[in-house]
Amino acid sequence: MSKKITIEPVTRVEGHGKVTIHMDNNGNVYQTRLHIVEFRGFERFVQGRPYWEAPVLVQRLCGICPVSHHLAAAKALDVIVGAGTGEGLTPTGEKMRRLMHYGQFFQSHALHFFHLSSPDFLLVSTATPPSET
Amino acid sequence: MSKPVIATTSLAGCFGCHMSILDIDERILQLFDLVEFNKSPIDDIKKFTKPVDIGIIEGGCCNSENVEVLKDFRKNCKILISLGECAIMGGLPALRNGIPVEECLHEAYIGGPTVQLNTKHILPNDDELPMLLDKVYPCHEIVKIDYYLPGCPPRADLIWDALVALITGDPLKLPYELIKFD
Ligand code: SF4
Question: Which residues in chain A are contacts of B18 at CB distance < 8 A?
Answer without folding.
Answer: 63
